[in-house]
Amino acid sequence: HRQDLNPKVYKLIRYSLLIGAILCSAYNSFSQDAILLLKDNSSSYFNPALTAYADYTKVGLVYRNHLQAVGNGFVTYGASFDKYLENINSGIGITIMRDQPGSKAYNYNNALLSYSYRIRVGENQTVRAGLLGNFYYSVKDPSKLTFPDEMDVDGNHIPNNDYERTKAIGIDIGTGILYDNKWLTVGAALYHLGNKEELHYHIRKIKLNAHAEVRIPLFSKNTYSNPQTKMQSFLKETYIAPNMFYLQQGSTKLTSIGVNLHTKNVRAGIASRQDIKFNSMVVSMRIGFAASFLELDYIIDVGKFGDNLKGLSSTSHEIGIIFRFGDDNNY
After folding, report:
1. Hey, is 148 helix, strand or coil?
2. Span 117-141, pLDDT tens digits
């Protein structure tokens, strides 16, 4: 009973119950992929048809720390390599990722092997199709979670040793399609097809991605002098890009609407993202810089969950690095 508890102990237990409820919900949701926002850093994770989207070789790194309000949050690491093969109008890529909560009760390690094929359907117009193989190794250890029924009246944790540690190795596939012209990109992808039902505690549920971006130039190339001034060089290929993204995986249904600014050396953007599952609204802000063969990007998410999680606020951070080789753009 509440009256039998020290107020500080009651506050601790109440907080533990809230965190425990969130962790239990998250634990049951480990069959869902982490949400990454820097698609250029892990293109095949976003859509296999985006593999080697650019005509140069690319190495991308990404780190995301999300839901920091819940324990130590959830952490995702990723590294990718893309290469375009001009002679066969194809792109190949490999992405290696690790996804785990701060409690280390679960980790999902996977390697994505992707292939894309480009078909030109008109001047500055292409259709791309992509295939992906996902090889994964998953471990779940519930004993590293603190559940509400493991707290005594004094706020001490009494672990339950009956939980079983399990692991699995498996393969699933994904596919995607993309239409692209000078000003528009539209695509969709399906992931985790062909999973084995007997591994249902470890497999990721089928995921649908749909995305679109419109690029609107702010300056006409006809206004540039020859040779270009420093200001004209800086404004080269400057455009704004309204964009949308939709994701559905299991009970998660997420929509995002935003706009990006792209200049020769600067990347910036803002987007609003809504997750129906958690009744959450998140605002994402991006800033990035490109120079020579290197690009650095940072995204911060600031949002609040709905009444089902008592209005809990949370902040997420995502950092990306891209190395470009053989890029004709002179940054």
Report:
1. helix
2. 999 998 889 999 999 999 988 887 7
Asked whether 64 and 76 are in contact (CB, 8 A), the reply is yes
Helix count and strand count (H, E) for the chain:
3, 15
Tell me the DSSP string of 107-124.
EEEEEEEEEEEEEEEETT
What is the per-residue pLDDT for 68? 60
- Judged on CB neighbours under 10 Å (0-12, 13-18, 19+), 190 is middle
Each residue of 268-282: pLDDT tens digit? 999 998 877 666 788
Determine the Cα–Cα distance for residues 52 and 216; give it in Å rounded to an integer: 23
3-state secondary structure of 187: strand
294's CB contacts (< 8 A; 6+ apart) are 321, 322, 323, 324
| Whole-structure pTM value | 0.79
How long is the chain? Answer: 331
- Place 316 in a pLDDT band, splitting at 50, 70 and 90: confident
Partners of residue 114 on adjacent β-strands? 93, 132
Q: Which two tokens stand for residue 325?
A: 């080789």
How many angstroms separate the Cα of 212 from the Cα of each of 79, 136, 228?
24, 29, 32
Nearest to 45 by CA among 6, 74, 82, 4: 82
CA–CA gap between residue 78 and residue 76 (Å, rounded): 7
Residue 22 pairs in a beta bridge with none
CB 285 within 8 A of CB 269: yes
Residues 6+ apart with CB under 8 A from 227: none
Rg (CA), the chain: 22
Do residues 191 and 209 lie in contact, with contact meaning Cβ atoms separated by under 8 Å? yes
Lookup: tokens for 257: 């609407």
**Cβ atoms of 176 and 50 closer than 8 Å:** yes
